[in-house]
Amino acid sequence: MRRIISLVLLSLLTSQALFAQKMSKGTISIDGYVSASNEGKTIPVEYAAVILNPAGLYAMTDKNGRYDFRDLDPGDYTISIQLIGYENVDSTIVLRRSGKSEFNFTLVESSFRLKEVNVVASRSKAGDATASIISRQAIDHSQTSSLQDIMQLLPGVELTNPDLSSTQSLSLRTAASTAMNSLGTSIIIDGAPVSNNANMESLSSSITGVSSTIAGSSVSSAGSIPNSGIDVRSISTDNIESVEVIRGIPSVQYGDLTSGAVIINSKAGIEPLTVRIKTNPKIFQGYISKGFRISDKAGDMHISGDYAYSNAKTTEAYAYYQRFNLKGMWTKRYGDLNSSTSLELKYGKDTRNRNHDDLSNSVSSGGTNIGYRFNTNGTWNINKGWLKSLRYDLSNSYTYKESFHEQDYVNAVSIYSTNMTDGTTLSNTAGRHIFDSAGNEITRFNASQNNEYATYLPFTYFSHYDFYGKELNTYAKVTVNFFKNWSKMSNKILAGTDFQSDGNLGAGLLFTEGAPPKNTSSESSYRERRLSDAPFVNQIGIFAEDSFKADVLGRTFNLSAGLRFDEVNSLTALSPRINASYDILPKVLTLRGGYGVTAKAPTSSFFYPEKAYYDQTNYNSLEAPDDKNKLLLATTYVFDRENDDLEIALNRKVEIGIDLTIAKKYRLAVTYYNELMENGYEMGNTFSSIQWMPYKYYSQTGTDAGGNPILELSRDTHKFFKYYVPMNTSYEKNTGVEWELNLGRFDAIRTSFYLNGAWMHTMNTTNGYTFDINSYNGSTVNSNVSVYDPQMRKYNYEKALTTLRITHNIPSIGFVVTLTSQLNLYAKNWTNYNNDVLPQQYISNEDGQVHPFTQEMSESSDYRYMLDQRSESRFITEKTKTTLVFNLNVSKEIKDFLTASFFVNNIFNSRPLDPSEVTSGSYSELNNPIYFGFELKLNL
Question: What is the CATH number of domain 2-123?
Answer without folding.
Answer: 2.60.40.1120
